[in-house]
Amino acid sequence: MLKKDAVYLGTSDKPEYLKLKYANRHGLITGATGTGKTVSLQIMAEGFSAAGVPVFCADVKGDLSGIAVKGEAKDFLIERANNIGFSDYELSSFPTIFWDLFGRQGHPIRTTISDMGPLLFSRLLDLNATQEGVLNIAFKIADDEGLLLLDLKDLRSLLVEMATRAKEISAIYGYVSTASIGAIQRALLILEQQGAENFFGERALNITDLMRTDNEGRGFISVLAADELMQSPRLYSTFLLWLLSELFEELPEVGNPDKPRLVFFFDEAHLLFNEAPKILLKKVEQVVKLVRSKGVGVYFVTQNPVDIPDSVLAQLGNRVQHALRAYTPKEAKAVRVAAETFRPNPDFDTEEAITNLGVGEALVSTLEKKGVPSIVGRTIMRPPSSRLGPITVSERKQIIANSPLADIYDETIDRHSAFEVLQKRAEQRQLDELRQREREDREREQYGRMRRPRTGYEDIFRDDRPTKRSRSRKRNYRRQSATEAAVKTLARTVARQLGRSLVRGILGSLKRGL
Questions:
Q1: Taking a C-beta distance cutoff of 8 angstroms, is the pair 356, 335 a contact?
Q2: Is 127 strand, coil or helix?
Q3: What angle do CA 190, 191, 194 make, to 5 degrees?
Q4: For residues 297 and 257, what is the distance between their CA atoms, to the nearest angstrom?
Q5: Contact of 19 with 367, CB cutoff 8 Å
Q6: In 3D, which of 10, 23, 12 has the Cα closest to residue 316?
Q7: Radius of gyration from C-alpha coordinates of the chain
Q8: For 297-353, what is the HEC assignment?
Q9: How far is CA 335 from CA 131, 317, 318, 343, in A?
Q10: DSSP 3-state assignment of 280?
Q11: What is the pLDDT of residues 398-408, one digit of tens each?
């Protein structure tokens, strides 16, 4: 029943397999709440892991964590395995690494603001076009002047610097209003209150740590704790999109491998596309289209196929469709659209079958020879080998402690970055202003002593106007200021030349290369 070159999904009138050779052609798991989407994700992740393919998935409800421990021999699972002829069914655990943006239920997972880039960060802050333009200028200044934007305090410091130098920056990069800077600052405050300060910083995630295998050659399953993260849906969707873009930018081309290098499950995928601007949707479409050549398979998990834009949906060749309900005209139309995406089976009506599927049943169509979709099959999905439901707190702690990444990401690193550089600049400006005031005070005091010879009418004819010599000193001081400005301009020019060596990818994230 099990095959080395395919993942066994279940049985219709024949065993249904997802061939590893076509697994990087992406896929879709859909169905109403409670119809078995999470279990389908679980058995697919198990199959990929057993085939030596690492997996990344988000645990939205908390019950996917059971994949890390051996399942229990429950009667209904054994009965299902017997009914579909799954003679190879065995209970097993799978190598798992737990992650958590907040660092409470897994290893902290972080990136830097510079790495994320202006496009995704604007999406995260929900900025309008004008505010997004100002944020783009901020990133450009950071690149040009060699300022590292690692965490939120770095970006705040840069925005304060931009407000201080608004006239100069507007002349070089375009108009920067204090109102837009204030709006971005307020959005940063909201983001911080949602817990995002834990996500931005170092040590930043190394993509290769998502692509590990254990001593038996099984792929590690990276499970992101997302039950708390889902309270901030924009942060959740932007994070997963950033991670997908990182995989695209950093991994080398591999063409058409015999099996994927990584399979990426994007649960609650509708959050990615809700209210997303057209420019972002276009870039998402481009990333999904091109990332398969990097050996990455992307599987969107959502309630309904209509949640996915047509341009992206057309690229998803492997489909698992659980039951949908048609209680309203809108729902009926969604069922019809879902049915039309399958290659028809003459033995049943696809549209009718979608509304009549039981829990654990699904319509399955996967890519076969030459990438042609198979005829849709009404399939009883196989039972999982790992535990159905969540693990205990103590089990999670033990798995985290024994993780191959233990102690690597748990400590926060705060190195010299934009905050420290700009703080030093501000202190230097204050010192320069203080010295200038002291010089002016000394000059005024000197002018006061340079009076005419005393004739008894000093108070009447006092002349406090600066002498020719003192005016010359003032001119010299102005020339000195111009020289200092020239030096600063030269320094910025050099930094700008260095900044040009920084390259950003499709979604604006910083390209480093492996």
A1: no
A2: coil
A3: 90
A4: 11
A5: yes
A6: 23
A7: 31
A8: EEEEEECCHHHCCHHHHCCCCEEEECCCCCCCHHHHHHHHHHHHCCECCCCCCHHHH
A9: 40, 18, 18, 15
A10: helix
A11: 999 999 998 88
Distances (CA, A) of 139 to 50, 133, 182: 43, 10, 16
Q: Which CATH architecture has domain 6-110+205-401?
A: 3-Layer(aba) Sandwich (3.40)
pLDDT in the model for residue 478:
42
Instruction: Kindly write down the DSSP assignment for every residue of 184-200, as one continuous string.
Output: HHHHHHHHHHTTGGGTB
Three-state secondary structure call for residue 228: coil
Higher pLDDT, 68 or 468: 68
Residue type, 435: R
Nearest of 385, 390, 391, 395 to residue 92 by alpha carbon: 385
The tokens for 26 are: 């992406």
Report the largest interatomic distance among the alpha carbons of the chain, rounded to a whole angstrom: 123
Question: 58: helix, coil or strand?
Answer: strand
Q: Is the peptide bond before 203 cis (omega within 30 degrees of 0)?
A: yes
Distance between CA 249 and CA 199 in Å, rounded? 20
Instruction: Please classify residue 351 by burial: count the beta carbons closer than 10 Å to its beta carbon, then call 0-12 exposed, 13-18 middle and 19+ buried.
Output: middle
Q: Please state the domain extents for the chain.
A: 6-110+205-401, 117-201+482-514
Backbone angles phi, psi at 300, to 5 degrees: -85, 135
Q: Give every CB contact of residue 397 below 8 A, 6+ residues apart in sequence.
A: none
Query: Do 320 and 9 contact (CB within 8 A), yes or no?
Result: yes
Cα separation, 299 vs 24, whole angstroms? 9
Cα angle: 446, vertex 448, 451; to 5 degrees: 110
Cβ neighbours for 388, distance < 8 A, ≥ 6 positions apart: 39, 42, 63, 66, 71, 72, 74, 77
Distance from C-alpha of 163 to C-alpha of 160, rounded to nearest angstrom: 5
pTM of the model: 0.84
Where is pLDDT greater, at 305 or 459? 305
- Residue that is written with structure tokens 């399955």 in the block: 364
Integer Cα distance of 243 and 265 in angstroms? 11
Query: Is the distance from CB of 342 to CB of 365 less than 8 angstroms?
Result: yes
- Do 436 and 244 contact (CB within 8 A), yes or no? no
Kindly report the average pLDDT of the chain as a whole number: 87
